[in-house]
Design a protein that fits this description.
Blueprint: H1 12-33, E1 43-45, E2 49-52, E3 58-77, E4 80-100, E5 112-122, H2 126-129, E6 133-142, E7 148-154, E8 157-159, E9 163-171, E10 175-182, E11 186-189, E12 191-192, E13 198-204, E14 215-221, E15 226-231, E16 234-236, E17 241-246, H3 249-262, H4 271-297, E18 318-321, E19 325-331, E20 334-341, E21 344-347, E22 353-355, E23 360-367, E24 373-378, E25 383-388, E26 390-393, E27 400-401, E28 406-410, E29 421-427, E30 430-432, H5 434-437, H6 440-461
Parallel strand pairs: 2-6, 8-16, 17-19
Antiparallel strand pairs: 1-3, 3-4, 3-5, 5-6, 7-9, 9-13, 10-11, 10-14, 12-13, 14-15, 18-21, 19-20, 21-29, 22-28, 23-24, 23-27, 24-25, 25-29, 26-28, 29-30
Helix pairs in contact: 3-4
Length: 463
């Protein structure tokens, strides 16, 4: 006899159920992982708040991996809603850069608060084929007015390499920044002066700027409204003295090498290249350090009073070099480099005592390449003095210095041929003509009298 075993077949209903279940799993898997059903909302790249002058375009960037289907931008001013953009995107784009302009918005009053609502929908089939949506609200203040800027007083003239001063009145509740720009090249900070809304700037004509150009005070507010105010100045050029300086190989082999090594710079083997690196590259780095450190640490608090004495020459010294001398350097009768000398060199006995003429605060004390061991004292108003090539210092950073205080001794540190003091006057870190600041008459006429005139005007305006 033969016996047979039969397997029971599954009912059709269960087969259909399993098939449907597998289909649902497959569909779920497809929806979960298919790019067509991605469920990440679009990205709206913009600021969270802004001031708008109704002139500049507003930049907004839209992005989505699946592509952008449509977008809308609405400006809400009170109960009023103004549609700035409302577009369906016919060709799939992942990135859209919007530049919103102020067309049809001239009737919006100044100093009005508003909201800019950006809505973006992508091309995903997620959310029952409706796509992903992103909405961003940007808080906005309408500001159509330029900063109110007027001149109170300024120095009558400026000499190449010299200093001058300007006092202005500036009002804008949304002020962002203001500064004085000299010859479209050099920027000087404004310092609060006497009372709120008034500013002062001590500025300079850098010696390496040959052509004088108009000087302006420039003010911007947060809405990018801009005001420019011309500072009227008579100008005086200066005769440049040129010097031919012979550099010996011994100086380059020893002094140039030591200065470069102490400044953590590589020392070229070629003597000409070594001197140029010391005299050009390191000099530029040192000058940049002086300006950076002086601006960073100068007193920027409101100036209520300013006293300055004419700076005194190093006691019992002779002048061995002057300001704005154009030095041409020769090695073996061949010119290899040139540079400006930007201070006064005074020589006396070795290790002669150095006294500060004016009170102030020590804002820099360090080795400074070609300048050697140097001290910078801030006297407020953006005015500072520098003492270089010192051998010994008797002050430290942040020390408050009194007039007549002993601060250091002369020396031979840095790129020097002998013991002396390099004395310089700095205006916001730029070495200016020290002879002006050793002249009592010039200080009174150009600086102190200008400040006195402005003080009288400010008092009359604020009674």
């Amino acid at each position: 006899m033969f016996s047979h075993k039969y397997k029971k077949s599954l009912p059709w209903s269960k087969i259909v159920f399993i098939f449907i279940l597998l289909c649902l799993v497959a569909v779920g898997f497809y929806i979960k992982f298919s790019p067509k059903f991605e469920h990440k909302p679009p990205t709206i790249d913009s600021v969270d708040s802004l001031y708008w002058n109704l002139k500049d375009d507003i930049a907004i960037k839209l992005f989505d991996d699946s592509g952008i289907r449509r977008y809308e931008v609405v400006l809400k001013v009170g109960k009023k809603q103004i549609v700035l953009e409302n577009k369906n995107v016919m060709t799939m784009k992942q990135k859209i850069n919007l530049l919103l302009n102020s067309e049809y918005l001239d009737d919006i009053a100044d100093n009005t608060s508003a909201k800019l609502v950006v809505r973006v929908v992508d091309s995903s089939s997620w959310n029952f084929f409706k796509g992903n949506e992103a909405i961003k609200t940007i808080d906005m203040m309408i500001d159509k007015k330029k900063p109110n800027l007027s001149l109170i007083a300024n120095s009558r003239y400026i000499t190449r390499g010299g200093s001058a001063i300007a006092i202005v009145k500036l009002n804008d509740k949304n002020l962002k920044e203001a500064y004085l720009m000299f010859a479209d090249e050099t920027r000087f900070e404004l310092i609060p002066y006497m009372k709120d809304g008034y500013y002062i700037s001590l500025f300079a004509w850098k010696i390496d700027i040959e052509e004088f150009k108009t000087t302006y005070v420039v003010a911007y507010d947060k809405a990018n409204n801009k005001t420019k105010l011309k500072i009227p100045l008579y100008i005086r050029d200066r005769k440049i003295k040129t010097d031919k300086i012979k550099i010996g190989e011994k100086f380059i082999k020893t002094v140039s090498r030591d200065v470069l090594e102490q400044s953590s710079m590589t020392v070229p083997k070629d003597l000409t290249a070594r001197f140029i690196k010391q005299n050009k590259d390191l000099r530029a780095e040192n000058i940049a350090t002086i300006q950076k450190q002086t601006i960073k640490h100068m007193d920027k608090t409101m100036v209520k009073e300013f006293h300055i004495k004419p700076f005194k020459r190093l006691d019992k010294s002779i002048k061995t070099a002057g300001f704005a001398e154009r030095r041409h350097y020769y090695l073996n009768d061949e010119k290899i480099n040139e540079a400006w000398h930007l201070g006064l060199d005074w020589a006396s006995v070795r290790n002669a005592p150095i006294y500060s003429t004016n009170s102030g605060k020590v804002i820099f004390k360090d080795y400074l390449g070609i300048y050697g061991d140097s001290i910078i004292i801030d006297h407020s108003l953006g005015l500072a003095s520098i003492y270089s090539h010192t051998s010994t210092q008797f002050v430290d950073i942040d020390d408050e210095i009194k007039s007549g205080q002993k601060i250091a001794k002369t020396g031979e540190t840095g790129a020097v041929l002998g013991d002396h003091l390099h004395f310089g006057v700095l205006v916001q870190g730029i070495e200016v003509n020290p002879n002006e600041w050793t002249d009592k008459k010039w200080i009174k006429e150009m600086i102190l009298n200008t400040m006195k005139t402005s003080n009288d005007i400010i008092k009359d305006e604020t009674k």
